[in-house]
Amino acid sequence: KRSRTPSGNPEETPSWRSAPMPEGRRLKRKLKKEPGGLHASALTIQPEWLSLILAGKKTWEIRKQQCLHRGDVALMASGTSQIWGMVEIVSSSRTSWEDLLASRELHRVPEEKLAAYCSQETGGMVWALQNPRILEQPLACARKGSSINWVKIDDPTMELLNESILRVPDLECRKTAQTLCRQMRQVAEERLRTVRTEYHKARYAANVKEQSISDTIMQVSGWLIFAPAGPCQVLGLLVLELLERRGAGEGKCGCKAMDGTPTLGYWKIRGLAAPLRMMFYYKGQKFNLKAYGEDAKDKWFGEDKPKLCEKNAMMNLPYLIDGETVVTQSNSCLLYLGKKLKIDVEECFIHNHQALDQITELRNDLMKVVYGGTKEELPADMAKHMQGPAAGHLGKLEGFCKGPFLCGGQVQSADFHMFEMLDQHTVMCSELKSDFDFKKYPKLLALHKAMKEHPALSKYFAADCYTKYAFNNVMYTRFVGPGFEGAFGPTTEKLVEF
Ligand SMILES: N[C@@H](CCC(=O)N[C@@H](CS)C(=O)NCC(=O)O)C(=O)O
């Protein structure tokens, strides 16, 4: 069994050597290359300690071993795949128990935790830290391998990280711990939502053990200690959820996000409904997937549309039926699901909404390409679209994306729309052999990757509505996408359950 650091992390194979501990030097800003540059792996630290380090309020990290590395190390909040910033390791040296006790303001570890970790005879190893920097936005980094303390940083993240390092503000103007805590809280809430979804799924499969409930509380409460506003609120929510789950009747899903089974109606294509379908999958919310096919003249225009027009005079495709509520207009449907499925948060509302509008403009320009001209002209028309309107919209969205998602640390409704547009554009460019360089949009590429790898979306990416549906209306378009085969077929309706 591995021992644990006072920060709560199990120790892993160390790479430490002692060195003198410099005091109060003016901090260097410029990144040095290895050795002494950025470590190839990120160090994971519990969020509450991480926030203190990045705020410059904890300059001693106590470990059992020495550290060979000198220079920058990226810091990842443990239990997540998010890098929040970096710090320079300037030395590691053995420090006596007495000195550790006398230097509490440098390491912040309470005596009882120290006693559980360090020996009174030999003290502990102190890694001296300086020059903490907080990234403008946390970076998602794919976790590989089994190491808990050190996570190898993948190449794209390393590239972004190096760029970020060069852009980080001076110590004088770095973000306060409060800002960091606010961001961490957003991530905590996002995590809480994922945990809830997982819980509901497991419960539905009658597979929940009491152990997983206490694990969940442990996992989430680690995030709450340093959230300046509303930790109790978040914890309270969790406790309420757990009580509710325990009280719920056997076999019943405790999910109260939407009443009954909502219906999503659209053409049997990805089109404007793909992001909406994704949102249902993302939250594990069962729904009726109505997909109009080659008989739409009767089934949609002749039957469903006139009936639905009685409830909503603007009726169009896509639409959502949720009990008595009937919503149309794709962006309104995205916002409706964002709210009802508890994906969107109030503080991101206007940023998210602006992104939705910009993505719609990008889509409208793409539609001019896929629904006009001949097949032979398509590659040239697409190239013109990419160099002109698409480059303009993507440039704006790249600048507007806070990273890793459009509104920052948590997925909002616009991210589903953004994903679909990035997916369609990249696939089209690759199918049409366009040499358009998407690398100019690193944040958007990272968003696309993060969504594609999101565990809550794995079922969506395996579903026919993603893999087999045409991108555009088969009856009118000159680009259907690589997954579409055979005939458009008749209108279908199926219950998607999780
Ligand atoms: N602005 C609307 C556009 C809706 C629209 O144009 N829908 C097309 C498919 S993308 C359609 O075929 N509508 C069926 C109809 O006109 O009844 C939205 O964003 O939802």
UniProtKB/TrEMBL annotation:
It is an enzyme of class 2 (transferase). InterPro entries: ASCH_domain, Glutathione-S-Trfase_C-like, Glutathione-S-Trfase_C_sf, Glutathione_S-Trfase, Glutathione_S-Trfase_N, GST_C, GST_superfamily, PUA-like_sf. Residues 1-27 are annotated as: Disordered. GO terms for molecular function: glutathione transferase activity. GO terms for biological process: glutathione metabolic process. Residues 345-479 form the GST C-terminal domain. Keywords: Transferase. This is glutathione transferase. It comes from Polarella glacialis (Dinoflagellate).
